Amino acid sequence: MAKTETTLKTAKRSSLSERTKEAISGYIYISPFFVLFAIFGLFPIIFSFYLGFQKWNGLGEMEFVGLQNFKWVLSDEIFWTSLSNTLIMWVLGTIPQLLFGIILAYALNAALIKMKSFFRVAIFMPYVTSTVAVAIVFGIMFNSQDFGLINVILGWFGVDPISWNTSWWGVKIAISTMVFWRWVGYNTIIYLAGLQAIPNELYEAAQIDGATIRQKIQYITIPMLRPIIILTVFTSTIGALQLFTEPLIYIGRSFREEGITVVLYLYREAFTNLSFGPASAAAIILFIIIIILSSINVFVANRIGR
Amino acid sequence: MSEKTVSNKVSISKLFVYALLVIASFLSIFPLYWMFVMATNHNSAINSVPPAFIPGSELVTNFTNVINTIDFWGAIGNSLIVSVVATLGVLFLCSLAGFAFAKFEFKGKNFLFFAILITMMIPPQLGLIPQYIIISKLDWLNDLKAIIIPGLIDAFGIFWMRQYISSNVPNELVDAAKVDGCSNFRIYWNIAVPVIIPAFATLAIIKFMYIWNDFLWPLIVLREESSFTIQVALRGLIDNYVRDNGMILSGTFWATVPLIIVFLLLNRLFIQSLTEGAVKS
Fold first, then answer.
1. Which ranges does the record mark as transmembrane (chain B) (predicted)?
2. Residue A93 class from Cβ within 10 Å (0-12 exposed, 13-18 middle, 19+ buried)?
3. What confidence tens digit (pLDDT) does each residue in B21-78 have?
4. Considering CB atoms only, which of B34, B50, B252 is closest to A133?
5. How much is the pLDDT for A14?
6. Nearest CA to B219 among B234, B240, B237?
7. Which residue among A44, A179, B214, B253 is least enclosed by CB atoms within 10 Å?
8. Angle in degrees, CA A93, A95, A98, rounded to 5
């Protein structure tokens, strides 16, 4: 009797310690993320909010200045230029990208199309190139001189050469084209995956009910694709607001006003002017803008097509 | 008669679809082709009207100029080191954490997992300046560690691995191994790892591409040429006063080609990996 009790106890204890062991292993296995994130993620974010209220050049003493940095940034004309540039290029780059993405996905999904995998690979290929390479190549194509490739092509249609990298719209169109080219194939493939997930029976049933192609698109394709459309709008918006590489490569160290973006502004303030306070304030403002725009995105996307 | 018009209609729409796909494919490939054309032509052939459209004979000259302008091989080497090491590190750490979240019971598990997902929403620029300060305080400026160590943080990777392990590693196997007295790490290593190779492949492609193409962060923390990754080094090509476009595009072409070749060889896996990641999250 006593013996069985002790065996039971040891069994219980060993199973308990098994569980503790499992929990300890669990904590150990997930700890690298939390340790690294605390150092290189969480702490910097908190410190950014702190820096936003300080005057500091990275070396001397910090000085608390209240909302001064925010006032300074918000009254800086170039900040507003950078914000409007970012928003304009967001519209120019994102909307055509998603629109063409859907059209191409629809084409790729069409029945009886041969060489589908060739088209898929070709259209996806731009995504595998690096942003820097894309920016350099397109920068040379959008050369302002007569011999710039785009100007030569425009010349065939009788259009006069455009000074792409110095004109207000020229810079934005050139940069948006780079973004468009690199991402349209990526979005196409995502939409294609969404289209292929729509069961064929739905279309067949609609066919029997005598639905037209437009009705099929309106009542089956768009609603079924909605979660994926929301996803792509969401990710491409966040990406567009963080635009940096293309404008930096295209307009160079001059940070020309025609092409400066918010992240470029932040970079210039922090690492060229060494004004860490205003730069942190700009980072916080960008964060707030991203939150606002993402919420609007989700809100609008939820209402459309309902 | 009516059947004929229907089939006509079908072939016209089919023609339209083909035309669309052919044009889209052409526009997708053309800049890459043009990069090659430029990389093989002399600057004067590029800067004439009309510019060159067929490959020339300056392939070697242009690339020699690239090597004389930037440390091309050194930069490729640095890029390979940071991408490979960070990718391997992420595969190990994320699968281990994903395994813990999928198969172990411990207090606060769901909360901690949720916290990891939340970190994915934060734009990376928010902490950029303090991150730079930390790196300089650690004396890691111009050190590849500055890219590799923060690169090991990958919330998506943990999410991805947890999902895959939950649905592909049977609980019975894990329990049986426990009964046999396997240590927790042995269970991970001998039972989970062999099953999750496909998830490794997907995450590896996503991570490798990300680190290889990253530009803003390396630009900030790598200031000396000997530590440049290829993306930062490429920028050095266009910073010259005399712009030799043949040389510039030779550099970008040879920096792009390796990835394109790997992509063409493994295109199915690549496309699936890079898009699945987006859809699943």
1. 12-34, 72-99, 111-135, 187-212, 247-266
2. buried
3. 999 999 999 999 999 998 999 888 777 777 778 888 889 999 999 999 999 999 999 9
4. B252
5. 56
6. B234
7. A44
8. 105
Between B89 and B274, residue with greater pLDDT: B89
Question: Chain A within 8 Å of B33 (Cβ-Cβ)?
Answer: no
A174 shares a domain with A265 = yes
Under-70 pLDDT residues of chain A: 1-16, 111, 304-306
CATH number of B72-239: 1.10.3720.10
Pairwise CB contact (< 8 Å): A23 & B129:
no
Q: How confident is the model at residue B189 (pLDDT cuts 50, 70, 90)?
A: very high
Give me the number of domains chain A comprises. Answer: 2
Question: Is 60 exceeded by the pLDDT of residue B95?
Answer: yes
Mutate to test the interface with B, among A24, A55, A120, A137 (most CBs of B within 10 A): A137
B233 part of contact set with chain A, CB < 8 Å: no
The residue-averaged pLDDT of B116-143 equals 92
Q: Same structural domain for residues A205 and A144?
A: yes
Please tell me if residue A153 touches chain B, with a CB cutoff of 8 Å. Answer: no
What is the average pLDDT across B122-133? Answer: 91
Does the pLDDT value for residue B1 go beyond 60?
no
Do residues A141 and A23 share a domain? no
CATH number at residue A96: 1.10.3720.10
User: Which residue spans within chain A are E strands per DSSP?
Assistant: 54-55, 63-64
CA–CA dist B251, B37 (Å, integer): 13
> Phi and psi of A54, rounded to 5°?
-120, 155
Q: Residue A249 sits in which domain range?
A: 69-303
Q: Is there a contact between B129 and A280 if contact means CB atoms under 8 Å apart?
A: yes
Q: Which A residues in the span 242-261 are in contact with B, Cβ-Cβ below 8 Å?
A: 242, 244-245, 249, 252-253
Cα–Cα dist B97/A26, whole Å: 8
From the CB of residue B212, how many other CB atoms can be counted at a distance below 10 Å?
A: 21
Using a CB–CB cutoff of 8 Å, tell me whether B194 touches chain A.
no
pLDDT for residue B4 = 56
* Residue (of A301, A37, A62, A56) closest to B122 by Cα position: A37
Same domain, A193 and A254: yes
Tell which of B129, B187, B249 to mutate to test the A interface (max A CBs under 10 Å): B129
